[in-house]
Known about the structure:
Strand order of the largest sheet: 2-1-3-4-5-11
Number of helices: 12
Strand content: 15-25%
Bound molecules: beta-D-fructofuranose
Largest sheet: 6 strands, parallel
Radius of gyration: 30 Å
Distance between the termini: 29 Å
Structural class: alpha/beta
Helix content: 40-55%
Shape: elongated
Amino acid sequence: MIRLYDLRLLFCLLMLGGVFLSCTRHAPRFRIGVSQCSDDEWRHQMNNEILREALFYDGVEVDIRTSKDDNARQAEDIHRFIEEGVDLLIVAPNEAAPITPAVEEVYDKGIPIIVVDRKILSDKYTAYVGADNYEIDKAVGNYVANVLQGKGTVVEITGLAGSTPAMEHHQGFMNVLSGYPDIRLLAKEDGAWLRSRAAEKMDTLLHRFPQIDMVYAQNDRMAAGAYEAAARKHREQKMRFVGTDALPGEGYGVEQVLAGELDATFIYPIGGDRVMQIAMDILNKRNFPRETLLSTSVVDSGNALIMKMQNAHISTLDGKIETLNGKINQYLARYATQQVVLLGSLLVFGAGCRITGCRLPLPAHQEQAEP
Ligand code: FRU
């Protein structure tokens, strides 16, 4: 026979079980690995976009690793993801040639792999999402030719030579400039996508060339380094600077334009949300585009302020989405606990009634009618 003491114990166990169950997270349905080549503001924004988009899907876990511009480290990261058994991999290859074998290995193992932003030297990947660098730089070329009115000297500071955007940017840029015989490309230097490297390269360029009309840097970070080097020699006012990326935020591209350091910058689309949507389409066996090319637009003194204001508004909304998601998770956890407690109470109540033979109280007149 069950005693009251046993019932209390049972009740407590059910309560504890409920709390435990509600706190335990369900095993993810899909595990997605992200291997980033670099650790900078542009990559952070992409990671945030991926993570924010992942909030819209149930049971998805995203693990992001960065190799900090190191090819060997990135290949290791990719191998570790394979060993851990991820369901899908997203890779932004640092340099094309050294990372191609690791990406091919993932593909050959049947793990879906999305290559983002930078490319590899093979078509062994499931999907690609990234900027149309060639088109971006045709726009840059036209802008430069227009500002120089078809005549002048230019230096180009490129990204890491072995990374595909550096090659594509240059080809697009030259495609346009080659149509202007009076615009001369004095030199092209590898700034490795880094501010400090670009500053060093600009120092030598300033030394070599007494007259430079235009500096084109393939990202805004390198444009800032080049500007800084020119300012140290008091030559920054004698030339114009153009960059790419147009990131919002303190000190980044849009503000560099507002500060008058950059003449213009071109949006280097990030597309982290798009990458995540394609990842989910692949995992859920839906149709997806194999190649997604994202387009650009110029940011100059005419629209930089409005860009800044709109970006600030978007970032407030992003923050609200994250807060809302936190609240939904809290409510869901509370709801799960309540369900278990309710179930436990009903069980205990039912068991109690069976033991004590209790019945619901009847209305007074019915009670009297009982024999
Ligand atoms: C970020 C970055 C950007 C650049 C892109 C090229 O890591 O360096 O500044 O536009 O990569 O892949």
